[in-house]
Write a structure and sequence with these properties.
- Belongs to the EMP24/GP25L family.
- This is CLUMA_CG008011, isoform A.
- Keywords: Developmental protein, Membrane, Signal, Transmembrane, Transmembrane helix.
- The protein has a domain at 2-120: Jelly Rolls (Sandwich).
- The chain has a four-stranded antiparallel β-sheet with strand order 1-8-3-6, with no helix packed on it. The protein has a four-stranded antiparallel β-sheet with strand order 2-7-4-5, with no helix packed on it.
- 10% of the residues are buried.
- β4 and β5 (69-73) form a beta hairpin.
- By secondary structure, it is α+β, with helices and mostly antiparallel strands.
- The protein has three helices and eight strands.
- α1 (2-14) packs parallel to α3 (134-202).
């Protein structure tokens, strides 16, 4: 009964950890990118496979929002890649098709399987090195997955606090700007009334009080 309970909990936690396996068609002389947010110091590994096409070349490139290249390879067909994120950022994996001008290109099927963080751990090797029993290995997976979920929630809470602080600061600035604008309008209206009064008095259209 205890083992069944552990398996149920492990299956529930796995719902929060997605292995990103994607398959799509890459049109000739086009580029398609996959983007994802990643925490700092996170290991990312993946594998890819591209269908063959005569006289067509596909390159891949991994970069961040500052256009720093973390991994790159030309003329690929299948293989693996890995990199470690330096800071929290949005990273993108781009596949680019190259077809000569005198060749009529055809779509190529691209398969990508990306794992990050706790997903990249080899639990078979950990079990052999630490001589863990199957139940102990499942508990180790549960512990790692729980830590990953807690870290994700902590990051989400931190970002929510930063967004709330930004919203409050923006609201205060808008309020002060609105008050300043109203004061300027009131000052301008007062100046216009006084100016027109002096003008009409000078033209003897109205009598001064």
């Amino acid at each position: 009964m205890k083992n069944e309970w552990i398996i149920v909990v492990f299956s529930f936690i796995c719902l929060f950890v997605n292995v990103r396996a994607i398959r799509f068609n890459l049109q000739p002389n086009t580029q398609k990118c996959l983007r994802d947010e990643m925490n700092a110091n996170m290991l990312v590994v993946g594998e890819y496979e591209i269908s063959a096409a005569s006289n067509q070349i596909v390159d891949y490139e991994i970069r961040d929002t500052k256009q720093h290249i973390l991994s790159k390879k030309d003329d690929i067909s299948h293989g693996k890649f890995s990199f470690t994120s330096e800071v929290f950022d949005v990273y993108e994996l781009c596949f680019k098709s190259k077809v000569p001008a005198n060749v009529r290109g055809m779509p190529q099927e691209v398969y990508v399987n990306v794992k990050k963080g706790v997903e990249t751990k080899s639990y078979e090797g950990i079990a052999e090195a630490a001589k863990l029993k199957p139940l102990e290995l499942e508990l180790k997976k549960l512990e790692d997955l729980s830590d990953a979920i807690v870290q994700d929630f902590a990051l989400m809470r931190k970002r929510e606090e930063e967004m709330r602080d930004t919203n409050e600061s923006t609201n205060n600035r808008v309020l002060f700007f609105s008050i300043f604008g109203m004061c300027c309008l009131l000052g301008l209206a007062t100046w216009q009334v006084l100016y027109l009064r002096r003008f009409f008095i000078a033209k003897k259209l109205i009598q001064p009080n």
